[in-house]
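Sample entry (715 residues):
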Amino acid sequence: MTNIPAPSARVGAGATGPTSFTKGLVPAEREAVAAAAEVLLTGDVGVAVLTVTSVGPVFTWGNAAFERATGYSLAQARAQYGRILSPGYQPVVRGLFAEHAIDGQPFSMTLPLVRRDGTEISVPVTITPMRDENGTLVRFVAVQRGGLEPVATPPPDLGYHSRNALETVARVSDILAEVNDEQALDAIVRLLTRHLYTWCGFFADDGVLKPIGGLTAVGRSAKQRRRGRTAADPEDPVGRLFAATSMRRARIAMDAVEIPGSASAQLVDQVRTQLGASLVPGGELLALPLLVRGRALGLMAVLLGGRDDDAEGSEAVLELVARRVGQAMDHRQLYEAEHRVAEALQRAMLPEQDQIEGLDVWTYYAPNAEHAQVGGDWYDVVHLDERTVGTVVGDVVGHDVEAAAAMGQLRSVVRAFATELVDPGKVLTKVDQILENMRIRRPASLVYASLTPSDEEEGTWSLAYSRAGHLPGLWISDGEVRELDGAPGRLMGFGTEQRQTATVQVKPGDAVMFYTDGLVERRSRTIQEGVGLVREILVDVVATSSSATTAADVGEALLSRLSEPPEDDIAVVIIRFPEPAGQDGADVPREAYWRLAADVDSVRMARRLTVSTCEVWGLANTMAAELVVAELITNAVVYGWGSVGLTLKDAGDGLRIEVQDNNPVPPTPLEVHPARVGGYGMHIVTRLADWGWRPSGVGKVVWARVRPEIPQDLV
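Predicted structure, serialized as tokens:
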């Protein structure tokens, strides 16, 4: 299509002259090309070419079918191009061309055209962006893909602006349905600012006015919403929109003097910052709430006074757009709430990990990011008696309620028999027998292990395990990673033959890891390749670690290297065997744990506990530890629910702090803004410590390792 001949050059079916189409072709191929050219030029399918210029696409050529459909000759069409496209639709059509000039993808639409005799027709077309050899967009080619439909003459009150309004709202609906949630609002802004408004923006109440470009950036629950000027100033016209229960409008003059820090002042500052020198003096901002079900999820604002002389029609369009966007945000919130409920159900089925004396234990669970349903992965670490610890990692096939129910039943049965029988082979054999009488139709794999201190050598443990169709665990010892591949067996519930038990002796400094296949399996690699990658990471961690490396250090390093989103549920248990107390040079990981109430007084108590513990352990930098604990506990009390867990660990090279709450939403450092009230806690933590978070139980654990030195500007 890049070398279309002039309309006057009619190529006959038998033409064989040398052209740019036929060079190097055999006669039969030249005949075929000539026939195709004849159809293109004289056939019944309309074709139009628009050349990209500095002012937008400009009509340059159309075939005979195009001339017959519009009634214009080529010369007339070039001269009257602005009149061929129905005027009420021009901004939206131009916006579509501009969007696809960026992504370069063909798109389909119905072009509303005005014939030379004044009648209107609708032409379904497919439009393809064409680029030159340098990748520069040079033209659009529109090809008719259906019959022409006459358009009835609109009533007198449905003129230019009404048609423009309807088409704009329709295009907004298309964007919300087709564009990625993270980019939907940005796409709507581009649509509205190309030909309707000088400026447009969407904002959320995040304590300050926060610009947003996607549907997922809003919708904090009342528990999570931070306080700020937008919520605290009911006299401010823009601030009132966030409390609106019905559609209303707020007008703000760009040259008016607003209260510093108010939502109106912040909105004006946003426009001035974004437009800069191109901002024309004067003008007025119109703001509307993104309203749905009697609550505002955010607001939308445009700068008036530029391009549309039908002010009332424009405001009606904006109300419709604001309502559509609010509905889309609400739908997104409902989906996310469903996902959180399903995930909370899954996590509620996981046990609260026992505090294991003499062992360093780290556990992790993460659901599949692609599913809102619950799944069947689980882990358990529990005291079986005064000396013995049991651990199990399992996986029931599926991502639905049935899989979760099967997981819950299987976990309970395994835990009951583990307490009674202890020996892994006997436990799984007994579970097989029970499953024959239970209605669990889902295949399940698991690995169960028991750990008992050795009587022969202090610090040594006997690890016995049995596997039911599950991946081997990994044993890290003396800088090597070995597979715990003994005692293999079939999936659970398939037969009742006696299962085997394998035993190894682990010594101080060793670590073992059990996991489900979601950790290693991806579409881009096999399970074997994933296991190999995990082994490489563990070897690197061991090679670069010190004697004070904790199980959490190993787990966090593993997750950071395996950073891609999981394609299946993940459950991981890492157990490290520390040196026994009292030996010279022993890495005795001192640890303290408290369960605190979700109350403001817990912040004060946590600070006292941290200071006294650091003094007893002889740790430096107590001030930094106290500040970090205070901020993390405050966040857990304010934004979480249920009780709060505080763990302090002497990692040898610094204090490790872990705070657990029942809110699965991760902590987020907020943007620094002079109008914000509070919200700087994670900034303080970032200055004083290295930190991160992981899912745990029904909520999360936020961890921090305090740095040795306090920054001078905080002293």
